């Protein structure tokens, strides 16, 4: 029955979006060398994620320029476009499969105390397996970037690029000051909402909060998520920026894993080395190398190429070309997964009721609507300020999920999150097939800072990622305040109409504390943190006076000519919310900066 249902989805989806046509439209050089000889590329882009896809599109608008886009992964299949399946793709080859180093203060309920850090490997990058939540951040986030010496990155500077990127279509929100309907990137509400998601918004109003457009003037308040979804289907970076174009001056090579940036004796980048089909290749360009491999792999590639901390590179016998603080200043939004609220009505998302339900399947196949259009159960959010907020920006996000870690009977989420058997079997197995909902409280401005290093100079070995989660106690305390807000939300009339009650089985390792006491929650937070795939900062942007800056405000690598980094790794401080919208903005802004640099050069 399950196989039949999946076949129905595949056939219907492929008929609506002809797979072969998509391939023809934009992966026109996948599986072969480029159409141009090595020395005839103007730009080489490494990585087809949210920023790399933007660069490929915008730079290829100049018909005189020849662009090469190299991507280690391949094109996802059409099941990836169905939002409810987000968790499944984190268990496939479309995920690099990275884990953080064993943690002392976090991930204690995960196998070997290691949280998973999913990163997309394919056309679209992490946008092929994230939860598609589109949040720009707060005005003051970008004004802070500018105040740190990053000229041109204030909110007034970046807002036009947020607008330029988006094809905004959210009912009831028509504000040209903040939104644009003519961009490439779909931004919509999920077409279907559960009763519980509506209850979440009603609960917010009951507590005195507004329903807001958090990408508009006011961020604090409650809202359905704005998502990168178009017609009920995932709108990844590749879907948005690569599928619509078929330009003869753009080559896209998939399955091409870049292992090194080539830099000459004058410290000028001139090409890259990559491996495809077990064959080592080199390709060169005349203008710039644009590194868009993401916070983890951009930093890794720089260090493998001799750009990084001198002592670290020398330890690994990597010739040092530029001593630089690559890998430092690494931050991540981290939250808490363990708040589960049971309800007495069949209103949540249970996998057994979705995947095997013919009416649900047909609703999606025919109309791209219904529960399958919900990205992994994430439906709504709230931005709030705790007593620790240092300024007017919200310092905690409450992400509403119309299910819990047990909702798939332990088939996907427990594996994707690396939950230990002891934790899952103790807390979640007893409530399998029971309706529940969750809130994930997430700290917005984490104080705990991590570092990324190389394990060896072997380009095929994963880097060493130590985020030092909760090394600063403030992060736990802010999440704890979010826990209290979430519990208050569950007690509103809106949720009591469903008999909401806090699931009270204790997390193993926290049994010594009274359930729901502050000390219990502190312990639980350290056992069940949520990773948000929002790591930033390993190639920090900053002025020359910033000793930790790796790139300047034009995103040019200090000390190296013809090399820029364009992705989340350059973010000098964490924005509020989710970072993917900001990465699209960075790609759009970088494309204009590059065009300005070369406008007088043919």
UniProtKB/TrEMBL annotation:
Cofactor: FAD
Phylogenetic classification of the source organism: Eukaryota, Metazoa, Ecdysozoa, Arthropoda, Hexapoda
Residues in the signal sequence: 1-16
UniProt-recorded name of the protein: Glucose dehydrogenase [acceptor]
Record-linked Pfam families: GMC_oxred_C (PF05199), GMC_oxred_N (PF00732)
Domain of life from the UniProt record: Eukaryota
Residue positions of the active site: 534, 578
Domain Glucose-methanol-choline oxidoreductase C-terminal: start-end pairs: 446-587
Coiled coil (residue ranges): none
Record keywords: FAD, Flavoprotein, Signal
Naturally occurring in which organism (per UniProt): Cyphomyrmex costatus
